[in-house]
Amino acid sequence: MSPRKESFKEPIVRVNTAKIRFPKMCPVCGSNVTKAMRISTVPGRKQWLRPHWDPMYWSGKRRFGMSLSEAQTFIVPVCEDHYYGDKSEWRHRLLCVVADGILMIMFFFAFLIMGSNFWLGRVNPFWVYLVLGVFVVAMALSYLAFKSNQFESAFRIVGFDADLQHVWLKLKNHKYRDVLLNENPMSSEIVSWIIRR
Questions:
Q1: Which end of the chain is more exposed for a tag (fewer CB within 10 A), N or C?
Q2: Burial bucket for residue 113 (CB in 10 Å: 0-12, 13-18, 19+)
Q3: β-bridge pairing 72-78 and 4-16
Q4: Distance of CA 172 to the CA centre of its chain
Q5: 53: Cα separation from own chain's centroid
């Protein structure tokens, strides 16, 4: 893969991974912190906010020889209102995936029956429209379940530089970004473009 330049409208922060110190304020609202969230990511792969959201996490690390030592983990202080527990969201999203799979099968058969009835000039039974309606509602609920929460949209790991010494962070809260830069004066800087490899 050849290197490519990526520019940002809002500047991002480049911080040394070994020396990073996160401010004692919430990255979403800027209030006092009471909890800490663990954010893990594996450089060079698609970025996941939490490791168990990655489909390859459970089986891939054994099958493809990946080890947890490759992962970079950051402890980010957050306030009570913007702390998101891993297990509840994971269960909710897993339930959505299972329900959507079952509803897709039902939708496929309802669509076939609808096409057959149209071809033969018959009226569709009521349950066909009910399945179609439930499927549309389930897709809308799944979109909401997988939509980024407030923390994910305010604090995002863009990636790592080529030697994995620095992490690029996209921070929505400008006050938090300024405090992060002040607390890491020798190991952080603002950048408006990066080179991806």
A1: N
A2: middle
A3: unpaired
A4: 15
A5: 8
